[in-house]
Amino acid sequence: MNAFADYSKKKGQDARGFYKAVRSLTGPYILRRLKTDTTIIADLPAKTEMQAYCTLTKKQIALYQAAVEELKTKLVTMSGKERRGLIFNYIMRFKQICNHPSQWLGYGEYMPSESGKFLRLQEIVSTIVEKQEKVLIFTQFQEIIPALEEYVGKLFQREGLHLHGGTPIKERAKLVKAFNEESGPPFFILSLKAGGVGLNLTAARHVIHFDRWWNPAVENQATDRAYRIGQKKNVMVYTFMCQGTIEEKIAEVISSKKELSDEIVGSLNESKLTELTDEQLLKVVSLDIHRAVGDV
Q1: Which of 31, 10, 32, 12 is nearest to 20 (CA)?
Q2: What is the dihedral of CA 170, 176, 182, 183, to 10 degrees?
Q3: Residue ranges in the chain assigned as alpha helix (H)
Q4: Which of 2, 43, 171, 226 could in theory staple to 204 by disulfide, Cβ–Cβ 3.0 to 4.6 A?
């Protein structure tokens, strides 16, 4: 288990007793409605969730490793709010590098060959194209949406739709209607926060989380745009994750928290990383080269 998981373990153990006591007191008064409970929703199809592991390209590895070394140097001289701000900035940098080097570098051109996630996206979307099905693609970052839309459009050989925080409310209803039409656009790219609630997109059979918010509650709300009452087909959910990076290590923590308690899961976010010591933090963000290139 990694450093962040070790740090979280004790807190989780302490919380276990508290949540158990709370559940025992409130259980008789709470009806928990789960979509997977067929006695409540008998006609909802199955949902299959899988981790879509991605390797890093040489360019991503070089940028990621350089960022780790920079962070290590700067942590020595910083503390308090300045340290927390530094960590937040580098977490975003690591996420951007994992998505595509151009997202961090600010280049306008996104070459698919320079990103392991773009290559993995090609594999999955190509299968969806062959099946003539529809897909929702969620990302935390609005700035990468145009590049994703252009790339996925080439794979489908059709234009798609996009939605983010700047999309007018009136326009959203039109986009939803267009996507849900049988002959409508085959893909919809949404910013995770803007597209996570209030949208019924059951025309999609596939959901791709291109990058993670690290809050399962938010991610589940996004998935539920497709996996909801009215969905007639089984839903496939792909969560992209770069091996050997902070993405994989955080995923391990989220998984361990799910086993502990559903109530604790949603508490994970970037602010928790700022509470780690320098040594613990560097273990979390450090790059495992062998896993990053897919050797193990």
Answers
A1: 12
A2: 60
A3: 3-26, 58-75, 80-99, 101-105, 116-131, 145-156, 169-180, 216-223, 246-260, 262-265, 270-273, 278-285, 289-292
A4: 226
HSE-up (13 A, CA, CB side) for residue 227: 21
Rounded to whole angstroms, the Cα distance separating 281 from 63 reads 18
- The pair of structure tokens assigned to 208 is 């791709």
Smallest Cα–Cα separation from 151: which of 123, 130, 174, 176? 123
Check residue 57 and report its DSSP letter.
P
Task: Match 């009136």 to its residue by tokens.
Answer: 170
Cβ-contact 227, 49 below 8 angstroms: no
Paired residues of 241 in beta bridges: 53
Q: Which CATH superfamily is domain 3-55+109-292 in?
A: P-loop containing nucleotide triphosphate hydrolases (3.40.50.300)
Distance (Å, whole) CA 285 – CA 20: 33
* Amino acid letter, residue 241: M
User: Which residue positions in the chain have pLDDT lower than 50?
Assistant: 7, 19, 22-34, 37-40, 261-267
Per DSSP, the three-state class of 241 is strand
- φ/ψ region of 105 (left if φ > 0, alpha if ψ in -120 to 50, else beta) reads alpha
Entry pTM: 0.83
pLDDT, tens digit, 9 for 90 and up, residues 188-239: 999 988 887 779 999 999 999 999 888 888 888 999 999 887 888 889 999 9
Q: Are 207 and 227 in contact (CB under 8 A)?
A: yes
The residue type at 192: L
